[in-house]
Amino acid sequence: MDMQGSRTLPATQEQTWAALNDPEMLKACVPGCEKFEAGEENQYLTTVAVRIGPVAARFNGRVTLADINPPHSYALRFDAQGGVAGFGKGEAKVSLATAGTGCELSYSVHSQVGGKLAQIGQRLVDVAARSLADDFFTRFEAALLARHPQADRPASTAPVADSGGAWPAWLWACLAAAVAAGVFALTR
Prior knowledge:
CATH architecture: 2-Layer Sandwich
Strand order of the largest sheet: 2-3-4-5-6-7-1-8
Strand content: 35-45%
Number of domains: 1
Mean pLDDT: 76
């Protein structure tokens, strides 16, 4: 599965970069996230519990950062195992750029799932991924505004682009441990 998109966030590029690299912030914003902690250098270990249709499972995974260019971009490689529920793996590229008083996060992702998740149907998985992404963005934007309150910024912004209903890149990387998500990337 391949996709790309972008999202405008209500924080500066530097503030967004810091938030995207804060395990506690990500743990609080990713729906169902039970663990998001640093492992080896540039690596995070994750545990996320999700339900997609009839499939409910706890996914344990690893997200590895590469090609790091602060505060502009990085690549993510992710893999997760959920026992009989299946697996998720792939890679995403994330970039940040100043957009007015905020920041535009752009991403591209390539991912695949297997096991029971792959059997329940792409449409159901896509709907669940969009719902998780919307939840994530609501939480992430609120956390950014709480961390960096500024009266002249809007409380929420809509996605700028969506290439068609796959997993969001950086959210998928975060949720790779949970299977359903696709970025880091960010979209609905």
